[in-house]
Amino acid sequence: MGNKTFVDTSGFYALFAKNDIMHSKAADVxxxxxxxxxxxxxxxxxxxxxxTLLRTRSLGHLVPKFFEIVMATAVCRIEWMDQxxxxxxxxxxxxxxxxxxxxxxxxxxxxxxxxxxxxSMTKDLHFKAAGFVPLLI
Length: 137
Known about the structure:
This protein is an alpha/beta fold. Helices cover 55% and strands 12% of the residues. Strands 3-2-1-4-5 form a five-stranded parallel beta sheet, with helices on both faces. Helix 7 (125-129) links the parallel strand 4 and strand 5 (133-134).
């Protein structure tokens, strides 16, 4: 696999919610990565946010399929929060208290820096402000 793309909550949402304005673009990013044999990376925190977002937007029926696809595919690697990552993310979150970044965003940014990822399938402008490339903007 070549360069990997981080997938944020809004990226998964756009991919699974066919009525999302960025659905086609998210599907294109996914299909292009599959053809180029690259992969995706996400976190357990993103999976949590995505499932919650789908449910709160009346798309809870998609949640079982979402988990089934993400957990079964070799194309998407899940990175898990652990004690060290929590401490690093907490320090990063506290250091950037002038930003409106969520703790989950900060975990994503810390992980992307650790893994040297630049691209994120997201609509979230916070990724751009943090120095990453949001692919759905």
